[in-house]
């Protein structure tokens, strides 16, 4: 059945609605970053750049790094953007834009997030790297899809222990792709459980003038343990990325540069250099598989 014009929206030049990309412009290895300016910070290491496209906060460069074709794309902040980016990335490889039908043979993308984060454990130093083995989404993205993701025990237990208000979404648990994650262990890397939330201030229990509803959230998280797993860090996309990738059949892993430590109240004095180290490490790891 052909997808209607209101569902699969194509621009006049045949590119997909928000990302402005055509199928041939997307590599099968995709790096996602939040910050549009981080796209060039990644692609400056490419040996050649084949295309540069941008629309809104979605900037894309596709090129070659050490023989591997890679696309780097910015998602902007938040899982609302992840919904758009991941549906459109998937459509670029798995929908025939001419016939507007889903292809019989589906393509699996490798998706690597290079992002930034705040640690909740005092033992995780700023300027270190963290791989999200699993993520617990405090956003509600997964709940808007018909899915069969099981094993929600840790998410349900965490919601109880944090005494989350009934007004917030039910947390959901999603995992990285283990095989892909194993390619990024050749460096000192904390493997953790990431909380993805819908904001940077109140939802991460930060207060400038407004008081968060859950004041002791980070301390309760830091002291929480389930089946040997502790909460390691807070950010704003990983659970959405793992949820969308799992449902769509792509492999995803989220790599984080730890810029803040919420337990010690510290922030990196060299955030650009730390993110740059993570970019170089990730590119070399990607080129080697
Ligand atoms: O540095 P990025 O990749 O944007 O990731 C983190 O930084 C942003 C907040 O400053 C949020 O998007 C959070 O997830
Ligand atoms: O504390 C932090 C740092 C980076 N990104 C976040 O979402 N939180």
From TrEMBL:
GO terms for MF: purine-nucleoside phosphorylase activity; uridine phosphorylase activity
SUPFAM superfamilies per record: Purine and uridine phosphorylases
Stored InterPro entries: Nucleoside_phosphorylase_d, Nucleoside_phosphorylase_sf
GO cellular component entries: cytosol
Gene3D superfamilies named among the record's database cross-references: Nucleoside phosphorylase domain
Protein EC: 2.4.2.3
Biological process annotations from GO: purine nucleoside catabolic process
Top enzyme class: transferase
Nucleoside phosphorylase domain sequence ranges: 30-264
Top-level lineage group: Bacteria
Catalytic activity: uridine + phosphate = alpha-D-ribose 1-phosphate + uracil
Annotated Pfam families: PNP_UDP_1
PANTHER family hit by this protein: FI09636P-RELATED, URIDINE PHOSPHORYLASE
Protein name: Uridine phosphorylase
């Amino acid at each position: 059945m052909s997808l209607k014009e209101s569902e699969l929206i194509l621009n006049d030049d045949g590119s997909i609605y928000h990302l402005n990309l055509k199928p041939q412009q997307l590599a099968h290895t995709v790096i996602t970053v939040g910050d549009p300016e981080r796209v060039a910070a990644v692609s400056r290491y490419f040996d050649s750049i084949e295309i540069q496209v941008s629309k809104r906060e979605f900037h894309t460069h596709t090129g070659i790094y050490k023989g591997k074709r890679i696309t780097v794309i910015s998602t902007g902040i938040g899982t609302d953007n992840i919904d758009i980016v991941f549906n459109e990335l998937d459509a670029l490889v798995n929908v025939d834009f001419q016939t507007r039908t889903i292809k019989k043979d589906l393509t699996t993308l490798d998706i690597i997030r290079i992002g930034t984060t705040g640690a909740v454990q005092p033992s995780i130093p700023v300027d270190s790297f963290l791989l999200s083995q699993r993520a617990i989404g405090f956003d509600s993205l997964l709940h808007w899809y018909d899915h069969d993701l099981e094993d929600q025990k840790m998410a349900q237990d965490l919601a109880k222990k944090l005494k989350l208000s009934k007004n917030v979404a039910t947390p959901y648990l999603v995992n990285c792709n283990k095989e892909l994650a194993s390619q990024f262990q050749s460096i000192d890397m904390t493997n953790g459980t990431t909380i993805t939330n819908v904001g940077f201030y109140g939802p991460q229990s930060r207060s400038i003038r407004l008081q968060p509803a859950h004041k002791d959230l980070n301390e309760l998280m830091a002291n929480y343990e389930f089946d040997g797993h502790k909460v390691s860090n807070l950010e704003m996309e990983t659970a959405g990325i793992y949820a969308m990738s799992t449902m769509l059949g792509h492999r995803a892993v989220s790599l984080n540069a730890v810029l803040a430590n919420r337990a010690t109240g510290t922030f990196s004095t060299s955030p650009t250099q730390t993110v740059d180290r993570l970019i170089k490490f990730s590119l070399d790891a990607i080129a080697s598989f």
